[in-house]
Amino acid sequence: MPDIASPVPATTTPNPLAPARLGPVSMRNRIIKSATFEGVTRNALVTDELVDFHVAVGTGGVGMTTVAYLAVAPEGRTERDQIYWRPEALPGLRRLTEAVHATGAKVSAQIGHAGPVANSRSNGLPSIAPSARPNPLAMGFDRAATEDDIVRVIKAHGDAARMAKDVGFDAIEIHLGHNYLASSFLSPNINRRRDSWGGSLSNRAQFARRIVAEVGDATAGEVAVIAKMNMADGVPGGLWLDESLRFAQMLEADGHLDAIELTGGSSLLDPMYLFRGDVPIRAMAETQSGIVKLGMKMFGRFVFKQYPYQPLYFRDHARQFRAALTMPLVLLGGVTDHDGMTTAMRDGFEYVAMARALLREPDLINRIQKDLATTSLCIHCNLCAASIFTGTRCPLVVDARA
Ligand SMILES: Cc1cc2nc3c(=O)[nH]c(=O)nc-3n(C[C@H](O)[C@H](O)[C@H](O)COP(=O)(O)O)c2cc1C
């Protein structure tokens, strides 16, 4: 087991900008555009804007782009225009994968079920959670998932993975983080079940492990399979490193994954833990309506805890995973320049994932390739997070062009 204090020797440190493999996939570099819900789909179908979004990132030089959050079931969406896996969505998704491939990049599909982060009001369908709970976003309640729901959702992940493979995705990223359904099953404070899906860590982990196994079986090594998992939920009583490390070791031992992408935070209870930096409460409130909007404006500063931004902000936690695991890992969180990429490689991470810096400048990787000293223009103001329901973008870019 590698020691945290001894990074990979310089001679074996890979070049982040050189070609690499991720499971069965050859990529032109080790940079993955991490999922940022694009907010440009209508009627839960691919649009030209969605294709253009990923073509811009592909043209900009990443090794692989990730199409954000494609729900495995209609009630697992965070809003009703979000794509869920079904035959009608497939021609558009095929058009998207072909367009990205023409740029030289690979393309990954993030699949999952939002569980308590789903918006039942918008979906027009009741949302499910490990245990019944109020859902402030939907101004309603989530019902406790039944045994049938659990089996159905596990199977739906396999079906989604099969469809993703068939329409040309190179990788499947299973969303096991941010207190979406699988992550909320892992969370001791959201999962209050007394059956075999709750209680001990091995019980709480069972749902996620069964999903990963289902996806592994469905894809049979033909595409890469990645899991995005929480190292910490960031909330009192939530999943913490002691258990998330053991959970990651279970995933490694199960042997269905080509890589794990390490994240943290709760879209439900502590969203800023994901991002760090400024909290644009007013802009986020404007995306809501009625009483939710008012509530956010009045109480947002209590809900949205602020965390100072720093480059590679998940590095300290992630290095503990590097020490405990031998499988490939993706470092995420505050990677914005060549220095950060190289630090990640020296620490022994095989890939880096980047989100906000590529929203600010989709061509950042090409610019770094040309000049390694290039710095990102992203100022982690997080106004992009407030733009997700009207077409995810960096509003500073729009302002500059206005
Ligand atoms: C606008 C926006 C939308 C996001 N949507 C998703 C998403 O759909 N799925 C997901 O797993 N993470 C999502 N994230 C989180 C990012 O993938 C990433 O984990 C986070 O921004 C930290 O990376 P960064 O420091 O490179 O921005 C989103 C982030 C932003 C800024």
The molecules bound to the chains, other than polymers, are: flavin mononucleotide
**Element order: H for helix, E for strand:** EEEHEHEHEEEHEHHEHEHHHHEHEHHH
**Which sheet architecture does the biggest sheet show?**
8 strands, parallel, barrel
Q: What's the helix count? A: 15
**What is the alpha-carbon Rg in Å?**
19 Å
Question: Runs with pLDDT <50, length 5+?
Answer: 1-8
**Strand sequence of the main sheet, in spatial order?**
3-4-5-9-10-11-12-13
How would you concisely characterize the structure shown here?
This is NADH:flavin oxidoreductase. The protein is globular, with a radius of gyration of 19 Å.
Plain-language structure description:
This protein is an alpha/beta fold. The longest helix has 20 residues, at 147-166. It contains 15 helices and 13 strands. Strands 3-4-5-9-10-11-12-13 form an 8-stranded parallel beta barrel, surrounded by 6 helices. The protein has a 3-stranded mixed sheet with strand order 6-8-7. A two-stranded antiparallel ribbon has the order 1-2. It binds flavin mononucleotide (FMN). Flavin mononucleotide (FMN) is lined by residues 34-37, 68-69, 110, 175, 228, 263, 274-275, 332-335, 354-357, 384-385, 388, 392. Keywords: Flavoprotein, Oxidoreductase. This is NADH:flavin oxidoreductase. It comes from Gordonia westfalica.
State the main characteristics.
402 residues, alpha/beta, eight-stranded parallel barrel, 15 helices, 13 strands, 37% helix, globular, disordered N terminus, binds flavin mononucleotide, OxRdtase_FMN_N, flavoprotein
